[in-house]
Design brief:
cytoplasm, mainly alpha
Length: 67
């Protein structure tokens, strides 16, 4: 009877490369600033929300979007 170590019975380590991260879509980026901006626009109109609109644009630019 042969002796087999427990280590040799374990599943082999996965050697595949980690899954590539999918690029972030513009619709999903900066949800915090997007939600506040959208609520302001609905309630007050875009003219009254320029600071929030710019804050959202800044957030999008920081993530690499060209706006």
């Amino acid at each position: 009877m042969s002796t087999v170590s427990a280590a040799s019975l374990e599943a082999p380590a996965v050697t595949e490369a980690p899954e590539q991260k999918k690029p972030l879509k513009a619709c999903c980026a900066c949800p915090e600033t997007k939600q506040v901006r959208d609520a302001c626009i609905i309630e007050k109109g875009a003219e009254s929300c320029t600071e929030l609109i710019e804050a959202h644009k800044d957030c999008m630019r920081a993530l690499g979007f060209k706006i």
